[in-house]
Amino acid sequence: MRSRLQWNHGRGEHVTVGRKQTFTAEVLVKFFVLAGLLYMPVLIFNWGEWVPFAGASVYLLWELGRFNTALGELADLWNARHDQHDQRQESARSDSLQ
Question: How far is CA 1 from CA 4, 22, 32, 67, in A?
């Protein structure tokens, strides 16, 4: 599964994080479509009104997990890039001291 967030390298040390799609709108549309589909058995079997929204909430939790994973990936990339930058600065300092 690929992240929806991407790491865009700019000039020098500038980096931006861009999204490939409109995340919030897509998730909300999928939530309401899923709730609508889950509402059909409620009408047929006379189940409780809360069942479709409880089922669709599982989808929201899954998307939240994906978002958390994507932010974790970005944090790891940021930390790796920051560590490389620190190592370059330390090596430049040690070279200048010699």
Answer: 9, 17, 23, 12
